[in-house]
Amino acid sequence: MSDALFIGHTYIDVTVLADEWPTGDEKSVARDYAVSFGGNAVTAAFACARLGSPPDLVCSLAPDWLGHMYTDMAAAHGVTLHGRHVRRSSLSFIMPNHGKRAIVRARDVDYLNDFPRLDISGYRALHLDGHQPDAALHYARACRQAGVLTSLDGGGVRENTDELLRHIDIAVCAERMCEQLGLTPEGLLDLLKARGCRIGAVTMGERGMLWYDETGRVDVLPSLDVPGNRIVDTSGAGDVFHGAYVWSYLNRPEQPWAEHFTFARAASAHKIQHLGNEAGLPKVEDVERAMMAFAAKAG
Questions:
Q1: What is the pTM of this model?
Q2: Which residue of 45, 54, 147, 285 pairs with 78 in a disulfide if CB–CB is 3.0 to 4.6 A?
């Protein structure tokens, strides 16, 4: 049995690198492309696996050829899938652009069966992205009660986010959630504290992360200064960040969260130098190399 359970929605990411995009009845030739697994918690699960701790993953799964390709990807990385069936695979078309990225998605969230009920007794960590809200809330409650660390990728406000937060230990949220709730990053941290999250954070891209530690002290974790000419594809960097801090917690539980996040920051710095999620998954030595190569950005 794995040490961790991840729950999310599966995408197949098609990432295309191009100098220009047609705007009308035109054609152009791309410089490169990558096809990989995608989805927030899904990519985080694969990152955790690449670092050396393959998790269990409850995710959407379709019987089409993209679903078969995804199943092969999971097997190659040692990720154990617990599928929740849909008719068609979901797709993301990703267009990196000078350190930013545009994304167009087509997805099927009409689940054909209930989520699987797994024995959580062997897990030490749970990571969610808020997709499959019924499964997310079920496992967050059960794991919190059992003393299993619960982690949330708060990419945005979903239908049961407020209730879900009451069962989360580690909440790492995107700045988008601040915008949706009409809060400043500091205000969102106050909300996370009020909901009982032991560690709370707001990620701000190249401006780093505002967060509070085990004592409640608020600090800034600056991003690493990766030269612009080495940045290829920033998509998936946040997902790798989540997977990396879960791995760090599983393998170095005695370390403070500042160390887990510092490790995860370097994992993200590795990811953005590669096109697509699979190519950007780091091994531990890649993370250590990024730690040595890049300094923190000046405040």
A1: 0.96
A2: 54
